[in-house]
Every structure is written in structure tokens, then in C-alpha cells.
């Protein structure tokens, strides 16, 4: 009786299992990247909201937000 690994079906099955394990590993790494990026997006959204709130309220003790475009030099 020949070795099980020499049978074409067994070889294909082994190759598919190897590909599946690499695919699962890649998927896990991509999921980790997505989770990290979502945490960064959430932090940036909170920061933008806080900055908008500061700009709208003109925090006491801090001058209101002014764009640098409002202070163009005289030669413009």
C-alpha cells in the first residue's frame, strides 16, 4: 500500500490545509490592524469634537479661535 501523502487527493488536502492556516493568520493580523485603526479614529473624533467645542465656546482665559488667513500681511 503506498504512503498516504503520495496520493494526489491527500496532497491537495494537505496543500489546502496549509493555505487555510496562512489565510487564517493573515485574517487575524488584518483584524488587529482594523481594531487599532478604529481606536485611533475614535480618539481623533473625540479630539476634533473637543476642539470644535473649544472654538464654539471661546473658552474663558483663551482667546477665540482665529484662522491665520484672517491675518494676512499687508502686501496681500
UniProtKB/TrEMBL annotation:
Basic and acidic residues bias (residue ranges): 67-76
UniProt keyword list: Coiled coil
Coiled coil (residue ranges): 13-54
Disordered, as annotated region: 54-76
Full protein name: SlyX family protein
Annotated source species: Pseudaquabacterium inlustre
Amino acid at each position: 500500500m503506498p504512503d498516504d501523502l503520495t496520493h494526489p487527493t491527500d496532497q491537495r488536502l494537505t496543500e489546502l490545509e496549509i493555505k487555510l492556516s496562512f489565510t487564517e493568520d493573515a485574517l487575524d493580523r488584518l483584524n488587529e490592524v482594523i481594531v487599532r485603526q478604529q481606536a485611533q479614529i475614535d480618539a481623533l473624533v473625540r479630539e476634533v469634537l473637543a476642539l470644535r467645542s473649544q472654538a464654539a465656546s471661546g473658552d474663558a482665559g483663551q482667546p477665540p479661535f482665529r484662522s491665520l488667513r484672517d491675518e494676512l500681511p499687508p502686501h496681500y
